[in-house]
Design goal:
This protein is α/β, with parallel strands linked by helices. The chain has 8 helices and 7 strands. The strands form 2 sheets. The protein has a 5-stranded mixed beta sheet. A two-stranded antiparallel ribbon has the order 1-2. A hairpin with a 6-residue loop joins strand 1 and strand 2. Helix 1 packs across helix 2. The chain is elongated, with a radius of gyration of 20 Å.
Length: 206
């Protein structure tokens, strides 16, 4: 793809770095920005810069936040000792959209995946175990995707906390094996939370 403008080419190259966006889609987006008033483009740029420079991670759950403690953790109406373990912010948003969960979250920041070089020490697992040890959890809900990596991560965490007197559950398997939470419809995900089942650690890791 040849460009008549180096500025246009640079903009397309940068936009195409985003996941799921190829050069043609990037070109359409950049041309859309050029057709819009300059102020709109400036607002978009300022919003992205503010996001990058001002975003924080909640010190309690590792969720994305504007402050040291996110709005979910700061909400006194949430059940603090009911903790749902998720992979990332997309899963928090998916579960919140169901309106079926009123506890807190713990965002791992990924899943254990030896093939990708991701081990337990690279995830927010130690802080979760500390919560359990300090009696800050009454029930732990495993809500990772139904994948080998998700099951491996669930099993690893379970082994670390199985000697502590807390309830461990996992979302019901209304979600197809191999599916990610963010792509699951709200009704199915909500029912999976409501109908969660005991997690006894009897997961077969293949």
């Amino acid at each position: 793809m040849e460009f008549s403008s180096k500025l246009l080419e640079n903009a397309v190259d940068e936009v195409s770095r985003l996941p799921g966006i190829g050069k043609r889609t990037a070109l359409r987006l950049v041309l859309h920005l050029l057709r819009n008033p300059k102020e709109q483009t400036k607002e978009l740029g300022n919003a992205l810069l503010s996001l990058r420079e001002g975003i924080k991670f909640c010190k309690n759950c590792h969720n994305i936040s504007d402050n040291e403690v996110c709005e979910i953790c700061a909400n006194p109406r949430r059940e603090e000792r009911l903790v749902c373990v998720v992979e990332d912010i997309r899963d928090v948003l998916a579960i919140e959209n169901t309106g079926q969960f009123h506890g807190h979250y713990h965002v791992l920041g990924g899943k254990i995946s030896p093939l990708d070089g991701i081990g337990p020490s690279q995830l927010n697992i130690e802080t979760l175990i500390e919560k359990v040890k300090n009696n800050k959890v009454s029930e732990l809900i495993f809500a990772l995707g139904s994948t080998i990596e998700g099951d491996t991560t669930n099993f690893y965490i379970y082994r670390q906390i199985q000697d502590y007197r807390i309830i461990t559950t996992t979302i019901a398997r209304g979600i197809s094996v191999g599916d990610e939470l963010e792509y699951t419809d709200e009704i199915t995900l909500g029912r999976s939370l409501v109908n969660r089942i005991p997690f006894d650690g009897a997961i077969k890791i293949k």
